[in-house]
Amino acid sequence: MSSFSRNLSDSRISQIPGVKHGPNGTSFVSSGIPDLDKILGGGFQLGSLVMVMEDGEAPHHLLLLRNFMSQGLIHNQPLLYASPSKDPKLFLGTLPSPILSKDEKGSRMETEQEKGLRIAWQYKKYFGENQQNNENRRDTRKEYGNEFDVRKPLKVPSLGAQGIDCFSILDSSNLIAFRDRCSTFLAKVPRNDKGIGCAGRIAIQSLCAPQCGFSDTVSCNTVIWSFH
Q: What is the pTM of this model?
């Protein structure tokens, strides 16, 4: 589930990290899989609700879930993750890290070479300042959609520091309590006088599965659509 706003002007969209303007006034956030973004015409539409059927024998849904969450964290977007596991925070440790572009790899190689050089002390400050500027430029140049390496875990900031919230669906006695927990997260999404400060992401795993304890699928769907 992507963010929660519509009908924003082009200038305001361009100022929101991780949000891209599309045709006919639409706006998108990346799914975390660039090829899927192309198939979808740009990604997940801002404010959309996406339901994915899970397959225990071919867990491609987990790949999409992890990439979707990682892509949001890279853009510092608030994230809510809920699952039927006892400790859903452990899932954050499985999120993949983005693959560096050729330019970023080249910059890092140059930086490592500079660190190994034995130069006169009067030049160290000069190289140190350039190194810091290069790192700042790399930090601010965040791609709309990244490729991810599932072998390398993403360095996830501490919970709450970036608006990350995790909870177990098993802790909710009923769907109303579950909905209220999600509503509390939505209320904390930064806003400004124009109505929106950033895009946020909600990722709910296996909500209608038997292990969640909510047997009424119709009620589950009603709660999900209430977020939309």
A: 0.74
